[in-house]
Amino acid sequence: MVDLLLGLQWGDEGKGKIVDVLTKDYDIIARFQGGPNAGHTLEFDGIKHVLHTIPSGIFHKNAINIVGNGVVIDPVIFKKELDNLEQFDIDITAKLLISRKAHLILPTHRLLDAASEASKGKAKIGSTLKGIGPTYMDKTGRNGMRVGDLEFDTWKEKYRALANKHQALLGFHNIDIEYDLNELENEFCEGIDALKKLKFIDSEQYIFDAMGQGKKILAEGAQGSLLDIDFGTYPYVTSSNTTAAGACTGLGVAPGKIGKVIGIFKAYATRVGSGPFPSELFDEDGKTMSRVGNEFGATTGRPRRCGWLDLVALKYAIQINGVTDLMMMKADVLSGFETIKVCTGYHYKGEEIQHLPYTIDEFAVSPVYTELPGWKKDLTQMTTSDELPPALKGYIQFLEKELKVPIKIVSVGPDRTQTIYR
Ligand code: GDP
Ligand code: IMO
Ligand code: MG
After folding, report:
1. pTM
2. C-beta of 223 in contact with ligand 2 (< 6 A)
3. Would the CB of 412 count as within 6 Å of ligand 1?
4. Whether the Cβ atoms of residue 99 and residue 68 lie closer than 8 Å to each other
5. CA-CA distance, 184 to 342, in Å (whole number)?
């Protein structure tokens, strides 16, 4: 069986931390979509690590880590990730396997991303500019380059043809972007050399065989459900299916082989980049969340927008993914608020609704809040569920009743150890 771990909001829910915490119970950790737009943070032994492409199980000796076919890989960023891991005692060639069917992000994909965003002006998506959209466009357009192509001598010709096409496309955007293609290509080739040191596999077959041997597999999602290309706040989304079905196509796992669907959410909400966010705060409360939660993007360093938990959106994400287990992150950040608000409905066309309409921008919906008492106690040293303050227990009970899925973990700090099981 393959368990899934997914973000239920707009990304950055704390997926990296929880995958690291859960890895001891799994034999294989596999990323199934997204690329280096992701930034997954892990903290233990006083060190903070940020991973972009490499699965978050990499620090554990027991687990094999797989970059699945649904992922897009930038060899340049990938090499940097590998270099960062050199200081640790990790047998990387044995522990990290790459799907031959994963697509490659070319330097010109990044340039196209930048040109596309610049040409949109105010309507820009707020992309991480890692070339994600253009790479998935080439994948579905059947033009892309895959990891497996690197095993053939012809890969450079393939590369050149695609890069030439991208340069022609850049011309259409009519945007001045300065770049030195030679420099970018040197860097790219160094990245390819680093990538080629790893083992390329037919990951769908590998995972199928591992399942046959009774191995336990955890699929690690990137981004969040509301950034899903189909079900997110389109067009302000990423270019892959971040929801449960993405794990089937991104790893080659049949739907019937999916076990638990673990959904991760913050005790409040954040979003980085453009797009609607009905419960967004522009007041002191929002600033407090941002400061206490240290809400800055792990990939781009951009400040994350903050707001109250949106139960309408969360219920939608739970429904789309078929979530069986919930995990609530960053509960510690809400300590000190007199009152906790939760968005339990939207005002929409003169009535109150509890479902997600076609658009949730500020012209369509405004949030309806339910207020709950806050708590003052510092949670960060707590290790058991019993210690949690009554008001937080009340918050958890309220959420479980609304969401109808149990909250199995409450996270009270960024470190591995700051994890409370319920
Ligand atoms: P991911 O993309 O879902 O892996 O999440 P990110 O790593 O981008 O962002 C989550 C941030 O919150 C990181 O800086 C984590 O170290 C931090 N974090 C995770 N869990 C907690 C928690 O329970 N409390 C606090 N204060 N920080 C947390
Ligand atoms: P993790 O895995 C938060 C957002 C970007 C932008 C939109 C499209 O760390 O949770 P893209 O680069 O895909 O073209 O950007 O999606 N975005 C993320 N936001 N966490 C992420 O990943 C994200 N990956 C992309 O900010 O709004
Ligand atoms: Mg992140």
Report:
1. 0.97
2. yes
3. yes
4. yes
5. 47
**Residue 40 bears catalytic tag:** yes
Give the tokens for residue 260: 């638990």
The reply to whether ligand 2 has any atom less than 6 angstroms from the CB of 12 is yes
CA distance 90 to 60: 8
* CA–CA distance, 10 with 285 (Å, rounded to integer): 19
Question: 3-state class of 371 per DSSP?
Answer: strand
Task: Determine if ligand 1 sits within 6 Å of the CB of residue 414.
Answer: yes
Nearest to 407 by CA among 329, 307, 319, 293: 329
CA–CA separation, 2 vs 188, rounded Å?
34
Which amino acid belongs to residue 70? G
Amino acid in the structure at residue 77:
I
Token pair, residue 195, equals: 């990538």
d(CA 101, CA 252): 11
Average pLDDT over residues 5-31: 98
Question: Which residues are 103's β-sheet partners?
Answer: 72, 146
**Residue 238 Cα to ligand 2 middle (Å):** 6
DSSP assignments along 149-167, one per residue: GGGSTTHHHHHHHHHHHHH
Measured from the Cβ of residue 370, the count of other Cβ atoms closer than 10 Å reads 14
Q: What is the pLDDT of residues 29-52, one digit of tens each?
A: 999 999 999 999 999 999 999 999
Contact 224, 273 (CB under 8 A): no
User: Going by DSSP bridges, is the β-strand pair 217-220/103-104 parallel, antiparallel, or unpaired?
Assistant: unpaired
For residue 150, the model assigns a pLDDT of: 98
CA of 232: how far to CAs of 74, 242, 248, 275, 303, in Å?
24, 9, 18, 10, 21
**Ligand 1 mean position, distance from CA 298 (Å):** 9
Question: What per-residue confidence (pLDDT) applies to 122?
Answer: 92
Indicate whether 175 pLDDT > 90.
no
**Whole-number Å distance between alpha carbons of 312 and 20:** 29
Pocket test for ligand 1, best of 41, 292, 334, 379 (most atoms within 8 A of CB): 41
Q: Which ligand has the shortest distance to the CA of 273?
A: 2
CA of 400 to the centre of ligand 2 (A): 28
